[in-house]
Specification:
By secondary structure, this protein is an all-alpha fold. The protein contains 32 helices and no strands. Its main location: cytoplasm.
Length: 671
C-alpha cells in the first residue's frame, strides 16, 4: 500500500509537470500491483493520448471493456477515434454515452464539422456558447464562424450575422471566407488584409516567434488572397503568391494540396510538366482528412484533365470512370470522357456517351445536350445541332437560344425553320402570360422584343405579309410607337399601297415632331462658332457679287526664289540643268584611268564588246541597266530593267575591287 501511494504521488507530480512518459511508467507499476485498477487504467489511457499513442490507448480500452465502461471512458475513446480519423465511430461513441458532458459536446461539434453536417454543428456550438462560461469562449466563437463560412462556401447558404466582434485574425479570416462564398471578393480581400495585420500584431508580442514563424502562420491567409486574385482574373499575381507559399514549405498538407491544385487550374493545358510536379503535392499522406469532399473531388477532376492534356488516355479514362462511379449524377466525369474521345477523333462515340447520360439523368440533360450540339457543329452537322438544341424544352423560349437557332438556320438557308423558332417562342410567352394572369395584360418586354425581331427577320427575307401581322400586333400594344408605324407603312406600301396611305394618316404632323432646341446655345458652341465664321465669309462674298462689284480674286504673293551663291546674271543658265548629269548631251562619263577603254562589264572571264559600245556618251537617252551576270553581249539602251534580284547594288565595282585587293594580300603568304 505504501509503495502504491508513492507511485500515485509520482503520477500526480509528473502529470502536473507535463511529463506523461514518466507518469506512464509509474502507472504501469501500479497496474502490476492491481491490473484491474480503474483509475490506473484511466490514467494510462490519458498518458497514452498525451503522448500521441492513440491506437495503443484504444487497445487498452478495448481489452478492459468490463472495467472501462463507456460511461467512464466515453470521451477518451471518442477522442482517440476522432484523432485516428474514424469519424463515424467517434460519433457513435458520443451518442451512446449516457451523460453528455461539456467535453463530449465540444468534441461532438468537431465531429459534426468533419462530417460536414453544418446545420447540426451550428446548433451544437450555439448551445455551447449559450451554456458555457470559461476561458474557451473565444475558441468556440472562432469555431462557430468557421461553420458559417463553410455553409457559405460549400452549401451556398447566405450567412447570418452572428454579431461576433472580429478581434482576432482567425475570426477575420473566417469572415473573409464567408464573403468569398457570397462572391463579395473585394470585401473579402479587405478582411484578409485586416486578418494579416492582426496576425502580425498578435505574434509580434511573443519574443520567441521569428519572422519565419510569422510567415508560416500567414501562409493560409496569403493562400486565400491568391485565390481571390485568381477569381478576379489576376492570374500572374496569384501564381506568384502561390509559389511564394510553396517555397516556405508549410507543414499543412491540406494547404499545399489546395495551392497545388489551383496552380494546375491556372496552367490548364500549358506548362504540363509543372502541373505534373504540383500534382504530387495533392497525393501527400493525410490530405484526404484535411479537405472537404468537394475540394477532394475538384482535385480528382483536375487529375483526370491533366491526364488528358498529357495524352495519358488510359489514365484519364480510369480516373473519370472512378469519379463517375462515386458521383453517378455529376456532369464532369462524363464530359471528361467525351472530351478524351474527341481528342481520339471518336466524335460519334462521344455523342453516344453523352446521349446515354442525358437519358439516364434528365435533370442534367440540358447541359449535356448543349455539349452534344457543340460537337455536331464541330463536325459540320448544323441541322442536327439545331434539332438537339430544340429538344431542350426549358431553353426553347430563351432569347439566347432563339438567336442561336435563327442564326444557324439562316446559315443553312432554312428560313422556314428559323421563322418556326420565332413562332414557338412567341407562343410560349403567350401561354405563360395567360397562365399567370386573368384578362388582358400588356406583353412582357422580352415577348415584344421577340415579335419585333421576328418581324425584322421576315422583312429581311421577303416574308412581308407575315411581317405585317407581327408589326400590327406591336402597334396594337403601343399605338404611339412611330417607329413601328413607319415599318408597318413601309411593309404595306409593297403589298397594299392603299392601306399604307390610310395608315400614314396616323403619323404625327411635322409640328409635333419639332424638337425643342436652344438655338442660341447651339450656335454659341465651339463647333458651331467655327462653322458660322466660315459661313459669314462666304455670305459677304456673295453680297459683293449681288452689289455688282467686280469679283477679283486675291492674288497670292509669290515668294522670291532663292538663287545659287555662284549665280551670274550675265551668263545664260544651262538649259539642261534640270536633267540628271548622266542624261545631259555633254556628259562624257567618269574618268577611270588610263585603261578606261580596256575595262569591260560582266562576270570574270567573260568576253566583252568593244569600248565604243560601252561608252555611255554615245547612247541616245537613258543609260542601260547592268547586264545579266554571265552575259556576253552589251545591253542596248532600250532593254527592259533587270529584276531587282539581278541588279548590281550601288558601289558593287568598288567592293569587288576591294575583294580582289584582299585576295592579293592573302596570296603573299599562301602561295
Amino acid at each position: 500500500a505504501a509503495a502504491a501511494a508513492g507511485l500515485w504521488s509520482e503520477v500526480n507530480r509528473c502529470g502536473q509537470n507535463g511529463d506523461f512518459a514518466r507518469a506512464l511508467k509509474s502507472v504501469n507499476k501500479i497496474l502490476q500491483i492491481n491490473k484491474d485498477d480503474v483509475t490506473a487504467l484511466h490514467c494510462k489511457v490519458v498518458c497514452l493520448i498525451q503522448n500521441g499513442n492513440f491506437k495503443e490507448a484504444l487497445g487498452v480500452i478495448s481489452t478492459h471493456t468490463k472495467v472501462l465502461t463507456n460511461d467512464v471512458i466515453a470521451f477518451e475513446k471518442a477522442y482517440c477515434e476522432y484523432r485516428l480519423n474514424r469519424i463515424e465511430n467517434a460519433l457513435k461513441t458520443i451518442q451512446s454515452a449516457s451523460q453528455q458532458t461539456d467535453k463530449l459536446k465540444e468534441l461532438y461539434g468537431q465531429v459534426l464539422y468533419r462530417l460536414e453536417r453544418y446545420d447540426d454543428c451550428l446548433a451544437a456550438y450555439r448551445d455551447l456558447i449559450r451554456n458555457s462560461q470559461d476561458e474557451y469562449e473565444e475558441e468556440r466563437k472562432t469555431n462557430l464562424s468557421a461553420v458559417v463560412a463553410a455553409q457559405s462556401t460549400w452549401e451556398k447558404v447566405m450567412p447570418e450575422d452572428l454579431g461576433l466582434r472580429e478581434a482576432t485574425y482567425e475570426l477575420c479570416y473566417n469572415s473573409a471566407c464567408a464573403l468569398i462564398g457570397q462572391g463579395k471578393l473585394n470585401e473579402a480581400m479587405k478582411k484578409l488584409q485586416k486578418a494579416e495585420e492582426l496576425c502580425r500584431q498578435s505574434l509580434a508580442e511573443d519574443s520567441d516567434v521569428t519572422e519565419e514563424d510569422i510567415e508560416a502562420e500567414l501562409a493560409i491567409i496569403h493562400g486565400q488572397m491568391a485565390y481571390i486574385m485568381q477569381l478576379q482574373g489576376r492570374t500572374e499575381d496569384a501564381l506568384q503568391l502561390y509559389n511564394q507559399i510553396i517555397k516556405l514549405k508549410p507543414t499543412d498538407v491540406g494547404l499545399l494540396a489546395v495551392i497545388a491544385n489551383n496552380i494546375i487550374t491556372i496552367n490548364k493545358d500549358q506548362n504540363v510538366f509543372d502541373s505534373k510536379k504540383k500534382v504530387k503535392l495533392t497525393n501527400a499522406e493525410g490530405v484526404e482528412h484535411k479537405l472537404s469532399k468537394k475540394q477532394l473531388q475538384a482535385i480528382e477532376f483536375n487529375k483526370a484533365l491533366l491526364a488528358m492534356y498529357t495524352n495519358q488516355a488510359d489514365q484519364c479514362r480510369k480516373l473519370s470512370a472512378s469519379l463517375q462511379s462515386q458521383s453517378p449524377e455529376h456532369l464532369l466525369p462524363v464530359l471528361i470522357q467525351a472530351a478524351q474521345l474527341c481528342r481520339e477523333k471518336q466524335h460519334a462515340k462521344a455523342v453516344a456517351l453523352l446521349q446515354d447520360f442525358a437519358d439516364q439523368h434528365p435533370a442534367n440533360a440540358a447541359e449535356i445536350k448543349l455539349t452534344m450540339a457543340q460537337l455536331k457543329i464541330a463536325q459540320g452537322s448544323v441541322t442536327k445541332a439545331c434539332m438537339i438544341l430544340r429538344s431542350i424544352e426549358e431553353l426553347q423560349h430563351k432569347p439566347g437560344m432563339v438567336s442561336a437557332l435563327v442564326t444557324m438556320y439562316s446559315h443553312e438557308e432554312d428560313i422556314d425553320s428559323a421563322i418556326e423558332v420565332f413562332t414557338q417562342a412567341i407562343q410560349w410567352y403567350q401561354q405563360f402570360q395567360a397562365s399567370q394572369t386573368r384578362g388582358a395584360r400588356p406583353k412582357s418586354p422580352v415577348h415584344l422584343s421577340l415579335i419585333r425581331e421576328a418581324a425584322n427577320f421576315k422583312l429581311k427575307h421577303g416574308r412581308k405579309k407575315e411581317a405585317i401581322s407581327d408589326l400590327e400586333e406591336l402597334w396594337k400594344q403601343n399605338p404611339k410607337d412611330v417607329h413601328t408605324l413607319a415599318q408597318l407603312i413601309s411593309a404595306y406600301s409593297l403589298v397594299d399601297p392603299e392601306k399604307a396611305k390610310v395608315l400614314s394618316k396616323h403619323l404625327p404632323s411635322s409640328e409635333t415632331l419639332s424638337l425643342k432646341v436652344d438655338v442660341d446655345a447651339l450656335e454659341n458652341s465651339h463647333g458651331a462658332t467655327y462653322v458660322r465664321k466660315k459661313a459669314g465669309k462666304l455670305t459677304g462674298d456673295n453680297q459683293q457679287k449681288e452689289q455688282g462689284q467686280t469679283d477679283v480674286k486675291k492674288k497670292k504673293k509669290k515668294k522670291k526664289g532663292k538663287l545659287p551663291k555662284n549665280y551670274d546674271p550675265k551668263v545664260t543658265p544651262d538649259p539642261e540643268r534640270w536633267l540628271p548629269m548622266r542624261e545631259r548631251s555633254y556628259y562624257r562619263g567618269r574618268k577611270k584611268g588610263k585603261k578606261k577603254d580596256q575595262v569591260g562589264k560582266g562576270t570574270q572571264g567573260s568576253t566583252t564588246a568593244g569600248s565604243s559600245e560601252l561608252d555611255a556618251s554615245r547612247t541616245a537617252s537613258s543609260p542601260p541597266t547592268s547586264p545579266r551576270p554571265g552575259s556576253a553581249a552589251a545591253v542596248s539602251a532600250t532593254s527592259n530593267v533587270i529584276p531587282p534580284r539581278h541588279q548590281k547594288p550601288a558601289g558593287a565595282p568598288a567592293t569587288k575591287k576591294k575583294q580582289q585587293q584582299k585576295k592579293k594580300k592573302g596570296a603573299k603568304g599562301g602561295w
